[in-house]
Amino acid sequence: MNASFEPELGHGSFTLPWRSLLLAAAALAVYLILGPAPEAWVFDRVAIAGGDWWRLITGHWVHSDLTHACWDIAALLALGALFEEKLQWRLPLALLAGTAGVDLWLWWAEPTLSYYCGLSGILNSLLVVGLAYLWRDLRHPLILLTAVAAALKIIVEIHVGQALLTQTAWPSVPAVHAAGFLSGLLLAWGLAGKRLDADGFVELGRVVPAVPLKDGDGLADSAYVFQRIALEQDKISLLTLVDRTGTVGHASDPG
């Protein structure tokens, strides 16, 4: 099949990571207004058992001291700058998945831990999902090395019982970094499937509308539709032929 298309790719552009900026601003405002480890917001096992369920969420957005807050908020902004343009709505989803995973770990695997606060655990979930999406499009070995380095860092932290990069007023809980990391892996795996939608072909949640072929396009079966997916930050367009039975055929066309 011969086809010629101009790839719809943007180079050198930057989209403001407004979701990450809003979340970072909220975390900073909470610290500036309520101060370190506000009693009503931290993860408190006894209080949660008594009905303060919101602490399962707010506990991740408060910090034990200024250094703790600065490190976590800076990490959120860095990850947002790197990944938000690619992840879009999946960025808050990754944070929610990390929240669920870390909370489950704290509640069931750390029964003697009474108090906890901080973003670092759930940021590991965002890191993994962001790297998974970069790997999907770029296949650069540095992406794998980054993921391996993050995993090794967590293993070392668990072994020594202390965060490697920070010293905070409250003792660190390195196992929550592993819980966030694994939560991100599960979410990335769950988002990695492909499916056909009534409106087109969906690749990792990205819909590309179907365009019917006209007579004389060189295909005997007019039941086929033609679709194109411009891979972001790549020079290859993915050409997809989908017949009405749902059979999919792929052909690569240099952009």
How is this structure best described in words?
With about 260 residues, this protein is of the alpha+beta class. It has two domains: about 20-190, Rhomboid-like (Rhomboid-like fold); about 195-255, no CATH class. Helices cover about 50% and strands about 15% of the residues. The strands form three sheets. A four-stranded antiparallel sheet has the order 6-7-8-9, with no helix packed on it. Strands 3-4-5 form a three-stranded antiparallel sheet, with no helix packed on it. The longest helix has 22 residues, at about 65-85.
Strands across the major sheet, in which order?
6-7-8-9
Q: Categorize the overall geometry.
A: globular
Helix run count: 8
What is the CATH topology of the largest domain? Answer: Rhomboid-like fold
What is the CATH class name of the largest domain? Mainly Alpha
Oligomeric status: single chain
| Structural class label | alpha+beta
Overall pLDDT confidence: 80
Determine the fraction of residues in helical runs and give it as a percent range.
Answer: 40-55%
**Any idea how many domains?**
2
> What CATH architecture label of the largest domain applies?
Up-down Bundle
